[in-house]
Specification:
heterodimer, A: 131 residues, mainly alpha, B: 199 residues, alpha/beta, 5 strands, globular, Histidine-containing phosphotransfer protein 5 (chain A), Response regulatory domain-containing protein (chain B)
Chain lengths: 131, 199
């Protein structure tokens, strides 16, 4: 399964001369947001008495922002994660936390590579095709 | 109600969303669609901007020119639904169309927003085509008798079907679509909205 879905290419439609770094900017906001949320989830799950509503709230937010930037795999883990929160299943939640953290790390690495390559192409005087 | 198109060619939109990512996205979507945008992170901030928070007696000059309010549904503190209600209670802003955005396509949630007078309910992620359609709709100044316009339910059903989310409709919803209350302009061949695929 791809790391990003069609929404990621939708973001490129919003990038132009007046906002040439839009995709990178949104991705950066997403990285900051995701890292904060994943840390909050971890802290909440570490508590002796887990507040599953709180965890679910963080997962819901991550699901939302990953959907907005087209981070398909992260979003899909969040969907499963929410079911475990509903079921108040701590083990299941811990597994999902690991998974979401893994998917996020992979995605961040791939996107950063992509952005670096695009920068290099542009610096060399080339252009980056949108499709 | 004077149509927006008569007053100004540029829509001024107040966007409300607690998510940084979504706020940036909606701001850009609106800017690229030639709208002026004011983006805030909460219902409370939105009310402050509009001068409806009870603290300020004078609403800012800019806020008076708001033509459209687009808000996320699920927000901490005040939800988009609660914000919608407060706006509809205001004599100054009740005529301003309010659009709700949400990642949830729960029919009861959608219905309650429409009942409360929301212009539209858009399922996230919001696309450029959604904003374009919305802008055209607002600029044309099409009046909504109340929030229960068949037009809105049609758009929702098209959206939901397009995203292939299996959804079972109660018979009452299906009946609404077939009601003869649909404005006659919708049956014209130039209607920009797709015909619903009736279940």
């Amino acid at each position: 399964m791809g790391y990003v879905d069609d929404q990621f290419s939708q973001l490129h439609k919003l990038q132009d001369e007046s906002s040439p770094d839009f995709v990178v900017e949104v991705a950066s906001l997403f990285f900051d947001d995701a890292e904060k949320l994943i840390n909050s989830m971890a802290r909440a799950l570490e508590q002796p008495c887990v507040d599953f509503k709180q965890v679910d709230s963080h997962v819901h937010q991550l699901k939302g922002s990953s959907s907005s930037i087209g981070a398909l795999r992260v979003k899909n883990v969040c969907i499963a994660f929410r079911s475990f929160c509903d079921a108040q299943n701590r083990e299941g939640c811990m597994r999902c936390l690991q998974q979401v953290s893994h998917e996020y790390t992979m995605l961040k690495s791939k996107l950063q590579t992509l952005f670096r390559m695009e920068q290099q192409i542009l610096a060399a005087g080339g252009s980056v095709p949108l499709e | 109600m004077a149509t927006v198109a008569e007053c100004s060619k540029e829509l001024h939109v107040l966007a409300v969303d607690d998510s940084y990512v979504d706020r940036k996205l909606i701001e850009r979507l609106l800017q690229i669609s030639s709208c002026k945008v004011t983006a805030v992170e909460s219902g409370t901030r939105a009310l402050q901007y509009l001068g409806l928070d009870g603290e300020q007696s004078n609403v800012g000059f800019d806020a008076l020119k708001v033509n459209l309010i687009i808000t996320d549904y699920t927000m901490p503190g005040m939800t988009g639904y609660e914000l919608l209600k407060k706006i509809k209670e205001s004599s100054v802003f009740r005529e301003v169309p309010v659009v709700i955005m949400s990642s949830e396509d729960v029919l009861t949630q959608i219905d309650s927003c429409l009942e409360e007078g929301a212009e539209e309910y858009i399922v996230k992620p919001v696309k450029l085509s959604d904003v374009k359609r919305l802008k055209d709709h607002i600029m044309r100044g099409e009046p909504q008798a109340n929030g229960k316009s068949g037009l809105l339910k049609r758009k929702l059903i098209d959206d939901i079907q397009a995203s292939s989310v299996p959804l079972s409709f109660s018979s009452s919803v299906a009946c609404d679509l077939e009601s003869s209350q649909l404005p006659s302009s919708l049956s014209s061949p130039n209607c920009p909205f797709k015909r619903p695929k009736l279940l």
